[in-house]
Write a structure and sequence with these properties.
Pfam families: Inhibitor_I36
Keywords: Signal
Radius of gyration: 21 Å
InterPro entries: G_crystallin-like
Protein name: Peptidase inhibitor family I36
Structural class: alpha+beta
Shape: globular
Organism: Lentzea waywayandensis
Helix content: 10-25%
Largest sheet: 4 strands, antiparallel
Strand order of the largest sheet: 2-1-4-7
CATH superfamily of one domain: Crystallins
Length: 136
């Protein structure tokens, strides 16, 4: 009888250990690609596909095959990042919040950026809304 209880207890413990190992961590939504960089941008939703990593930005996303192709991004930075419609940091349209995570860009921003730069956009440009976060 004692052996059966011990076996049942071991089986339960093994199931718990397996479920803990299989469960994704809380930070699983941020990929390891671009680890150590301030910002990662991706051409597919959920941080997938072609990507580029930045510490200060790029005035021409064509050199990364990402011109008008960014659909998701994340920031580990403490300052915002400005997104631009045109090359050479011209025509700002929105900015990513410090520490922002964007597994899916808002419709107005998807596949739009031609350049990206560390720092806030000029006055009057709002912060890109994060999915599930209300912006007042």
């Amino acid at each position: 009888m004692l052996a059966r209880k011990a076996a049942a207890l071991l089986a339960t413990a093994a199931a718990v250990v397996v479920s803990v190992v299989v469960a994704p961590s809380a930070s699983a939504h941020v990929p390891n690609r671009c680890s150590g960089w301030r910002v990662g941008v991706f051409d597919l939703n959920n941080y997938a596909g072609q990507h580029a990593c930045f510490n200060s930005g790029s005035g021409d996303l064509r050199q990364f095959a990402l011109n008008n192709r960014i659909s998701s991004a994340w920031s580990h930075d403490t300052v915002p990042w400005c997104l631009y419609d045109d090359f050479s940091f011209r025509v700002p349209f929105s900015q990513m919040a410090p520490g922002g995570h964007y597994p899916v860009f808002a419709a107005f921003a998807t596949n739009r950026a031609s350049s990206i730069q560390r720092g806030a956009c000029p006055a009057g440009f709002g912060v890109l809304p994060e999915p599930g976060v209300s912006v007042s």
